[in-house]
Amino acid sequence: MTDDDGRPLDDPTSTVQHPDPGKATGDTDRSTPPSRWPRRIALLVLAALIGIAAAFGTRFGTDPGVVDSPLIGRPAPNITLPQLEGDGELSLTDLRGQVVVVNFWASWCVPCREEHPDLVTAAQRYREQDVTFLGVVYQDQPDQAIAFLDELGRGYDHLTDPGSRAAIDFGVFGVPETFFIDRQGTVVAKVIGTSDL
User: Fold this and answer.
1) pTM of the entire predicted model
2) Three-class DSSP labels, 57-122
3) Closest to 84 (Cα-Cα) out of 174, 148, 128, 131
4) What is the DSSP string of 122-160?
């Protein structure tokens, strides 16, 4: 077979163009050379890794449980709560001049169960240095909270929080959460999760 000029069809100088059977007629090759894609993907992966490292790098060397709170540097909420066991109430303002550690907890909270012995030990250790620990029962039944203390021990006062007003005032998201209040009544730290005292 020859073309209109008499040249064989497989002759490279032939003017007749044969359609590529794998390509639709009229299509043009618009793809970028395959060698560019691996480079682009590698650059995107590198940029993502740098972004992740920058985000996490600012937290390395810090305790992930210690978090910012709008209360830090401000006066602690003025709360008065009933005692879990026995009669009477306790007010934070009555404890001015002491360092106060306020721990929100519940009997159904597994991390609360884990940290409770450490809190009891710390309360005993710092009692002579005018550090007062308070446990505030968070969304729990008093009888279940008392059973929790019967099983794991006491060591400091525990209060109930009817209507979760204290939890709301402190901005509690869940339990356990622990707040540290200085001698002037200012919140100086907040720990979310198990405290390592």
Assistant:
1) 0.67
2) HCCCCCCCCECCCCCCCCECCCCEEEECCCCCEEEHHHHCCCEEEEEEECCCCHHHHHHHHHHHHH
3) 148
4) HHHHHGGGTEEEEEEE-S--HHHHHHHHHHH---SEEEE
Provide the residue-wise pLDDT of the chain in tens; the chain has 197 residues: 656 666 665 655 555 555 555 555 555 555 555 567 777 776 666 665 565 555 544 444 444 445 567 889 999 999 999 999 989 999 999 999 999 999 999 999 999 999 999 999 999 999 999 999 999 999 999 999 999 999 999 999 999 999 999 999 999 988 999 999 999 999 999 999 887 66
Burial 30-62 (b: 16+ CB within 10 A, else e): eeeeeeeeeeeeeeeeeeeeeeeeeeeeeeeee
Q: What angle do CA 155, 161, 166 make, to 5 degrees?
A: 105
